[in-house]
Amino acid sequence: MANCSTDVCSYKRAWALDTWVRNYIHNPYKICGDYIKEGQIALDLGCGPGFFSLSMAEMVGEKGRVVSVDIQEEMLQMLRDKSERAGLRSRIIPHKSQPDKIGISEMVDFALAFYMVHEVPDKKSFLSEVASHLKPDGRLLIVEPKFHVSKPDFDSTLRVALSTGLKQICEPKVLFSRAVLLVKV
Hints:
This protein is α/β, with parallel strands linked by helices. It has one domain (about 10-185): Vaccinia Virus protein VP39 (Rossmann fold), CATH 3.40.50. It contains six helices and seven strands; from the N terminus they run ααβαβαββαβαββ. It has a seven-stranded mixed sheet, sandwiched between helices. InterPro entries: Methyltranfer_dom (IPR025714), SAM-dependent_MTases_sf (IPR029063).
């Protein structure tokens, strides 16, 4: 997340999250395509301006939905505008969360936490809430930036995720990143 503070990446820098270079490096179809199926409900945590949400909305198809969560209303408005222009507005449910609570009611098949878990002050509470919204066999993909999150810090996050009842499936390769795919058991 270039140009982002140590807390939350400001909506004023949203342009850095939505470029052709990022699409080349972090193509949503390559990263999430194996885990999202038509008709599913997907969760994009810390969705920002919708870089992953729009592609996820295409992946879930007309009968699926994407719950896009962010703590900044400005990011969600950018997502609403972009999804309207892309003809995907009916598939995306923007949700403004609180800094300490996601606060959704949906149960989801797949959740993505891309470059954002390191910004969460209480990882145990956050990952417990995410796990509670996964359907049986639901999957969570956590991806963190190598340049910002050390291997010991990532391993600590993984231990917290495992303590919430999730089981590690694999460590997908994501350029410049540390990643883990987990399943609800």
